[in-house]
Structure formats: C-alpha cells, structure tokens
Specification:
Elements lengths: L4 H16 L6 H4 L5 E2 H26 L4 H12 L13 E4 L4 E4 L21 H12 L1 E10 L4 E12 L4 E8 L6 E2 L1 H26 L4 H12 L13 E4 L4 E4 L21 H9 L5 E9 L6 E10 L5 E8 L2
Antiparallel strand pairs: 1-7, 2-3, 2-6, 4-5, 5-6, 8-9, 8-12, 10-11, 11-12
Helix pairs in contact: 3-6, 3-7, 4-6
C-alpha cells in the first residue's frame, strides 16, 4: 500500500513550527524531550552521509581499486553530482592525510592544492584540525567559516570528516549557519535521514557508474562493494538495497542471498508485491518516493512494517533504497 507520508509529515512540521515559535523561555514545556531539533538532524544527516560514503570507499579501496590515481578519479566521479539539504548546500570533498585536495564537488579548482596552512576568516587552521581528527580519532566534527555555495557568503560551517584509512584519505561534508528551530518526532527524523542518505548515495552512484565504470559486470560489483558494509541508525537497522527495473536484485546490504534473483513475484506477508511497487515508485515522474510494506528487520530477525524511500540512479534503470522499521 502507498503511504500518505507527505501529508503526515507536513502536518507534523506545521505543529513543530507552531511549537517552536511559542515563548522561547518555556520551549521545553512545549517540545517533548525525545523530539529532534533541526540542528541535531542536520548534524546527523552530515555524519550519516559522510560515513556511508567513507565506508563504501574503504571497501572498494581495500579490494578492487588499489591504485591511488584511480582512487582519486573514482572519488571525484562519485562526489561531483552529490548535493543534499533542501538548498543543496551539502556536498563532499576528499583530502589526503597530508592535506592535499583529491576531490571537491563544488570547487574542483582546489584539486591538487595543499591546504594544511589554510585559515578561515578568524585565523583558524581548520584543515589541520580535519587532518588530525581523521588520523588520530577517525571521525569528528570541526567548526569553521567557509563560503556557502547556496548563498555565496562566508558562513559558519559545522563540518564532519571521516577517515578512509586504507588510502590515507578522509572525506568531509557539513552544513552552514544556524538552522531554524524546527522539531521532529524520532520517526520523522529517521525518515528524513533515510531519505537524505538514499538521495546522496543514488546521486553518487550515478556519477561513479557513468564516469568510471563502462561495463555491466564491473558496475554490479561496484554497487555491491559500495553498500556492503554500510549501516546507520543507532541500532544499525539502516542499510541499502538495489534493484534494476526488471525486479532483479543487484545488491543488498544485509541479505546477500537475494543478489542476482528476480523478485518480480515476491509478496510480503500482507500480499503486497513489494519489488514491483518499489520499481513503480522509482519510475514515477519524480524518480523517487516512499512505499510501506513488511520486510525482515536484520536486527530483530522479525518481519516488521517498513517505510522505504527509493530513488532512481541517474542515467540507469536501477534504483537504490533504504528505510526505517516502524515497530
């Protein structure tokens, strides 16, 4: 069955805005303690998206792309088309542990430059902080000031970096400014995270598949490696799955036995032809959307209701999806 998700979220956001616009001194009275602020949601989206890309790159670089020059080409092909957040201000960049820029989505002119001594408008050596965080901590947030591609203004940026240790690289992204005081229920926040994670991965895969891989066999191997170890959410129930428009499973983060199978006739326990419907969503005018069905939760081992978001891979008759379990 198709979900009326957009209406539900729309009403919830209206409520959230009303609540957040109430007397700020008594904000805690109106907003439930488990609700998620826009600031926290933006931080989580940045962390999840960046970690997912880093996890995929690490898997690829450990196994099938070991040459540093080819790694750089793959990174640029993947990150070039990726934008996230409603204003498209979210993007990726990749640097070495020695602060050489390897790939940059919005300013490719920086590629090949060393940025170790770069300072922001306040004199902060923020790239040094990124390098040290990547090398010694593995991941973390860094605050600095940088040009926002959505406004062309220098704004405060909350950046997140994640190491790609096998290649001695790190990937980063971030968000700008101070988000409005919107609040989301935990499920609304998880749905938004799954949507942004899927969009980012779909755009990146489209770039990599068209810019780096030329034959179908290598494309399928890339898809499987890229999503193989990606997990998100606190309980690790977030993962990706991919199908072609003939309902053949190309890659699955948790159920490898499905890979290569045509699941056109697969039904969940409620009689929904799940893969057919997901294909239908991916083939609509927008090329993306939500669908609710029942599927095995890899954390609990039980079939549970799932709200998935799927998106067509640009340039290919493939789609990628992820989602949240509703129980």
């Amino acid at each position: 069955m198709r979900t009326k998700f957009s209406i539900v979220v729309g009403l919830s956001l209206v409520l959230a805005v009303v609540l957040s616009s109430c007397n700020n001194k008594n904000e805690d009275v109106y907003v439930k303690t488990d609700w998620v602020s826009q600031y926290t949601l933006d931080k989580t989206i940045v962390e999840v998206n960046t970690t997912n890309a880093a996890t995929g790159f690490e898997t690829l670089f450990q196994s099938i792309i070991t040459d540093s020059a080819q790694q750089a080409i793959l990174c640029q092909s993947f990150i070039q088309p990726v934008r996230f957040f409603d204003d498209a201000s979210g993007y990726y960049f990749v640097e070495t542990y020695r602060a050489w820029m390897v790939a940059h989505a919005t300013n490719p002119g920086l590629i090949g430059t060393n940025r170790l001594d770069i300072q922001d408008v306040n004199g902060k050596y923020y790239v040094r902080d990124m390098v040290n965080t990547a090398i010694y901590t593995g991941n973390g947030f860094i605050e600095y000031y940088f040009s926002n591609p959505a406004t062309s203004l220098t704004e405060r940026k909350i950046g997140f970096v994640k190491s790609i240790p096998s290649a001695q690289l790190f990937i980063g992204s971030g968000f700008y400014g101070d988000p409005l005081s919107f609040y989301y229920t935990p499920n609304e926040a998880k749905i938004k995270i799954a949507e942004e994670a899927t969009r980012s991965m779909a755009l990146g895969m489209g770039g990599a598949l068209s810019g780096y891989y030329s034959d179908t066999a290598n494309r399928v191997e890339f898809c499987r490696k890229m999503i193989d170890f990606v997990r998100f959410f606190d309980d690790q129930s977030g993962y990706f799955f991919m199908y072609d428009f003939n309902c053949v499973n190309l890659a699955h983060g948790t159920q490898k036995e499905l890979q290569g199978q045509k699941l056109y006739d697969y039904q969940d326990s409620r009689g929904n032809y799940v893969i057919r419907e997901l294909v239908s969503v991916a083939k609509n005018v927008e090329g993306s959307g939500f669908y609710e069905y029942w599927w095995n939760n890899p954390v609990t081992g039980k079939e549970e209701p799932k709200l998935a978001f799927v998106m067509k891979i640009p340039g290919f008759d493939y789609f990628i999806g992820s989602g949240i379990y509703l129980q």
